[in-house]
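so the lab meeting is tmrw and i was supposed to have these ready like two days ago... anyway. pasting both below. for each one the top line is the aa sequence and the line under it is the structure tokens. i havent really looked at them closely yet so no promises
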Amino acid sequence: MNKEELKTKVLKAQQDSDIAALYVLEQDAHEIFDEETLQGYYTNILDLALERLTNTLENLAKLDMSEVQDFATLRALYEYAIEHYSVGEISDACALFEVLSGLSNDEKFSNALTLHTIASKEKISLDDFIADIADIEATQKSGTFYISEFTKEAQKLLNNSNNVEKSK
């Protein structure tokens, strides 16, 4: 695919608010676009995801992980939250994780995001979260776009959080 073909496909996906199509084109975008264009590409994905988030919240609905656009929306918002987490904007990441945990009808995703929320509330850095709480190898085997598998430390974190909530 050449640059013009890719730009045409990206523009069509943007006009159709098709986040999933943009993710399908992601590898080509990395190979063809310069860094500035690539940044704009991801900004467009995020803008579409935030628009879908707003619509979902306004309609008091949940996103369905088995529906391709909802899946892509959750992925984009999760990546956005992780980006905040990675640069130390832990409270912003925490708020996003908390919203995402209640946004999906997928129990595994919601439970995983609850752990992300608790870890960020406890001010655990992303590096420490990955090193101590996340099971990256098992997550990679599971094939999820999000950290979905955890170590025994995660259960301790969850138990401590539940104990704190009960004592309030």
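ok protien two:
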Amino acid sequence: MSAHIANNPHLQTLIDDGLESVGGPYLSLTIQRPKLAGNIQKWDILAKNAVQRTREYLEGLLGEESETPKAMADRVEAIVGAFDPLQDQCGGWLIVAGPDTTDVFELQDSPQSRIVWADQPYLLPVITDGIQRTRGWVLAIGQQTADLYRYDGVEMHDESHRLDFRTYDEMRETREPEGNVNLHTSSALRPNMNAGTGGSFASFHAAGEAVDDYNEKQLKDYFNGVAKAVEPLIAGSGNPLIIAGDPKNAGWFKDEIELHELHDEHIELGGEALTAERLMEAAAPIFQAIASENHELDDMGEGAPLTAAGLSDVAEAAKAGKIETLYLASELDGFAASNDDERVKFQELEENALPRRINQVVMRTVQMGGEVKVPPLQHKLTESEALARLRY
């Protein structure tokens, strides 16, 4: 089973039903999340316009006398009204509404604004989400907390909200009192070991495990917790992970994490220097060097063995279940930079429109257990809309 649908059985059902043209017709709608900068009125206008455009689109297809345009628009209004764009850290949403069911997918990147009414759901964005524009990851690991960034070849995107772990300070607050450790000082205690203006440092005498050893163990437990939060987000993606931090922390963390994507080279930064700007400055040339190395596309192309080139040949191979890996040109993956416009204009996709043909090939590929990839810009497809490595 393809990794795209292994953890989402209902997505697999949508793909199976869609390819067999059962369960429809479907209204598929992609909505971008604009950069609001706290201006929720902008979202209110966008949401209202999205509902109105949906109603007008369906009335144009089905007629004003049909009950479907109003019913579907009402469903879209209820769904969009439940979104919280000030809290949701995402690029946008895909809504797939059938006669009896509605699915909503939160998308990592900004989808192109599209609307489709067809017997087949438009699932291209949810299948390719996270594949495109992700060139690698940077984890800034500090002694107190950790931040995760996704690099798309142009800028860093803060994905720290996707991590679930206890910070070092949270672990300190919940650890059991150290009954076997005695503390004394010859004068006033400092607030902590690195601050304060008077008195002497506290002295410890441990009857059992030394305090420094205990703190070191707790620090490694914290690193282990961060590693367990990071691994499922990156494992199997093939996108390299670069660790940033002071050499000691980076070294300890590398001992805790188990990822094939972990890159040997790390970025030596610490404290206040662990900003998105400094991290991108340091990481960009590393990702550039990785992308310039031998790529899996190097031995593929027109006439190469076990290769299908061009949309027609790729479509035939997908239908026969021959595709091991499908490579798409980046402009065909269903995503684009946010236009940040509350007036929202949906692209209406006709039956033979290229995105819908790509959608069907992608659905068939993952249904048959194949993978879908969007090559880095250095290996951009220039002579073919689609390229596939075949199983046989």
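from a quick look at the 2nd one: Residues 177-208 have pLDDT under 50 and may be disordered. The radius of gyration is 26 Å. will dig more after coffe
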